[in-house]
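Structure tokens please, single chain.
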Amino acid sequence: MTQHLPTPQPHTALGRGGEFDMIRELVERWGRAARGLGDDAAILEAPAGEQLVVSTDTSVEDVHFRRRWLTSGEIGYRSAMAALSDLAAMGARPLGMTVALALPHSWTDDFGRLADGIGEAARDVACPVIGGDLSRSEMLHCTCTVIGTTARPVLRSGAKVGDSVYVTGHLGGPGAALRALSAGTEAAPLERDRFARPVARVREGVWVAEHGAHAMIDLSDGLVSDAEHVATASGVRLTIDLDKLPVLRGCNARDAARSGEEYELLFTATAGFDANAFARAFRLRLTVIGHVDAGTGERPVVFTIHGKRVDLEKGYDHFSR
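Here you go.
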């Protein structure tokens, strides 16, 4: 899904010092994946008639990942993609990304490979790194702030009664990989790849927005949690048929519905939405998994299997007890 990056702007010359030496290394490693680094702030121009979309995402060692599970490059890549997926969920085109790295001494030797992963993600979705910050920390913190633009942002609150509920791709891989890694076993290759190298559906999100999606969210917290976010924000009820859920081979629907860090898109649109055109454009499956009804009550989302309602626990919550 590599796209063409904008012509890079010249970087500002840097003075002496260890921090500036590290920034020079970033500039060299990122190449065309970065532009205009070195000043106190970046300057961006939004296309006429479009709105800015901004989101920040932080990946923290031993919270979002264990170092032994992933290569340094994979950690950088997935950190950037997690932030970029928020632009996809709004139907926004990337404009630029800032990266704030808080590094412990134990990461000094892997700093370059971490940066390579971030740069690869930036190139894959044509979102140049335009600034950031470096500091020391007891644990690795990688914070990516992404900026995009769109003439028609798609919010969580736009679902309409009578809409169909759609999801991109196949679910279950990251959750299955996490269970295996947490148990000290080896994850299946495809499941591990979905966990280690997630794909932000940026181009797909723009297409969906331009073709009439009413509400949209990325599946970072899992289908169970994120579907409830849409239903609650929109003041409607979603009914989702788990028999229709597209799951990765070897996964089951219940686990796939709770699997977080999927970064597939869940959206609502009229029943006439052209799923075949989407599939042709991106060679990616798009599946109708439910519909939107009036009312929320105590159950803003109802899940069914074989026509019978089932209860599912929510996905990961940083502050749940």
